[in-house]
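Much of what follows relies on a compact textual record of a protein's fold. Here is one such record, which you should read through line by line:
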Amino acid sequence: MFEDQSVLLGAILASIASLMFAFQYIFVRQGTQKGTVSDIIWISLLSNVVILVPPALLLYDFSMTIMSVLAFMGAGLSGSLFARICMFTSIKRLGASRTSPIVASNALFATVLAVLVLDESLTLVHLFGVILIVAGVTLISYDTAEGKRVNLTRRELAILFFVPILAAVFLGIEPIFISLALEAGGSIIPGTAIVVTTAFVGFTAYTGGTTGLPSPSLVRKPYFKWYIAAGVATTFGLLAAFSAIQIAPVAIAVPLIQTSPLLVIVLSMLFLSSKLEKVTPVVLVSTVIIIVGATIVTLVG
């Protein structure tokens, strides 16, 4: 009975994680209509730190090896900083419904890196999942190119799609760092605090030395609420996802979390205007293909 309750709780948490990640895309899309990518990244990272770090400091022991701390910091730079920069930029330029499935292809890059770095094996089932991911991304690329063929050159389209693919690469690198951190004696909750703090400090140092930190007057802007909402959604999505994977079997948690791009499409149709976000049947089919491929690759891995 207790095992069934854990599975049910894990499934609920995984569904919440998927929904929170989907809402993150919608909030970023809304916030970047008039706001800047730099501001929303900084505010969302600040939200992560404010929500995650204090409970981690109060409830968990941070006694870790230097190797585990460095690996968690690497995960923060890769997944929470560089991937977020690319992902939020892509949401602004390409749209939420097209960015989310492409970013979900990170399972492909995680698999390749696991084979190269962690010496894991590649099976025929892996290859089948990889083929599905590549096919889905190709379909989305084709559909977007057809829709924008009057406005953009092929070179501009290639650059446009390079950004979400780069986000997927950085997200694919993140699990390698997490695996190394856990093998070196780290734990998830305090490790997550290190991850978001590293990303926040890194981005603060960069923006402070270049464009400058967001102005305090930003809080009076009408789109500021979308910045906060994106940060809160990301934070609780991370917490729910990590908890789901710890409580429930991976075969239940991962497929539910991977459904996030489908929820992005539904939420886009419900809350975003057709001028801001155009969801086509090709995008829907491509998203399903990528989710299936990513789930296969992740579960087999």
About this structure: DSSP finds twelve helices and no strands in the chain. Residues 2-300 form one domain. Residues 101 and 261 are 5 Å apart (CA to CA).
